[in-house]
Design goal:
Number of strands: 5
Radius of gyration: 14 Å
Number of helices: 6
Order of helices and strands: EHHEEEHEHHH
Largest sheet: 3 strands, mixed
Number of domains: 1
Strand content: 5-15%
Helix content: 40-55%
Distance between the termini: 21 Å
Bound molecules: iron/sulfur cluster
Shape: globular
Length: about 140
């Protein structure tokens, strides 16, 4: 799949650090989260991602901007559910051929929506506590 790297000719803000599976969470998010501080921060970041035209993000296979306000973050690259979230990241990267580099979020999301299937979403997110109440599968695959 052809993914769009950051266009260096455009004047852009600092990239937001995001881990691969949060590319999916940010598409399904509807205001629910681990605690009030997490939700307030998630609201702000997701609002930017959903309203801006070209937001640079830098993918990392580690803790990211959204983890920074999460009560489950125990340290850098250390989440209380590390094994699970690392598996989400690895499967997301595998399905959409992602690398640790800078992308434009909105372009990347379009590519993901073009290529994602419900089976792929079950493979990546089947074990996620939020899957039963999140709109991620529907928003991403349209099914
Ligand atoms: S649960 Fe873990 S991966 Fe998810 S936002 Fe919190 S620290 Fe990050």
């Amino acid at each position: 799949m052809e993914l769009t790297p950051r266009d260096p000719s455009k004047q852009q803000s600092e990239p937001i650090l995001l881990r691969p599976h949060h590319l999916l969470c940010t598409q399904g998010y509807s205001g629910k989260g681990y605690d009030a501080a997490f939700v307030e921060h998630m609201d702000r970041i997701v609002h930017r991602l959903r309203t801006e035209e070209a937001t640079p993000i830098r993918l990392t296979f580690s803790t990211d901007e959204l983890c920074s306000r999460c009560p489950n973050k125990l340290g850098e690259d250390h989440c209380s559910t590390n094994e699970k979230v690392k598996a989400f990241d690895a499967k997301t990267a595998e399905c959409f051929h992602l690398e640790e580099k800078t992308y434009i979020y909105q372009d990347l999301v379009k590519e993901i929506q073009k290529n994602a299937t419900p089976e792929m979403m079950d493979y990546i997110c089947g074990d996620c506590q939020w899957a039963p109440i999140s709109s991620c599968k529907k928003n991403i695959t349209g099914k």
